[in-house]
Amino acid sequence: QVQLVESGGGLVQPGGSLRLSCAASGRLFRINDMGWYRQTPGIERELVARITSGGSTNYGDSVKGRFTISRDNAKNTMYLQMNSLEPEDTAVYYCNAMVAFTPRLETSLWGQGTQVTVSS
Questions:
Q1: From 86's CA, which of 4, 39, 48, 115 has a CA 20 to 30 Å away?
Q2: What is the per-residue DSSP string for 41-105?
Q3: Which residues does 60 contact at the CB level (< 8 Å), separation at least 6?
Q4: Given this model, what pLDDT does residue 1 score?
Q5: Using the 8-state DSSP alphabet, how is residue 21 labeled?
Q6: pLDDT digit string (tens) for 83-117?
Q7: Are the C-beta atoms of residues 94 and 37 closer than 8 Å to each other?
């Protein structure tokens, strides 16, 4: 059974930085696209950033220029470097991965979420 485990959330002051990690554990064939999403109460989950297995990226408009997504395919791990954090970035951040268990069987998996709070 493959699991995604997020880490790195916490409390940070406005203007500060945090680095989130998402590690996949378990038996799998390959991880295709991966991404970070975030959600606040009463608001639909929104895209933060996504990255392909080849390293192509796209970002939500609100985080462009401040956040950087990356991955280490050898470690089945994805990262989100968050700089210049704003109170509006406060949310639960979720990791998503398109995990292939065979060359033709792909499943979307989610992590448990990690809280990021930006406050003075």
A1: 4
A2: TTS--EEEEEE-TT--EEE-TTTTTTEEEEEEGGGTEEEEEE-S--GGG-EEEEEEEEEEEETTE
A3: 46, 47, 48, 49
A4: 85
A5: E
A6: 999 999 999 999 999 999 898 889 999 999 999 99
A7: yes
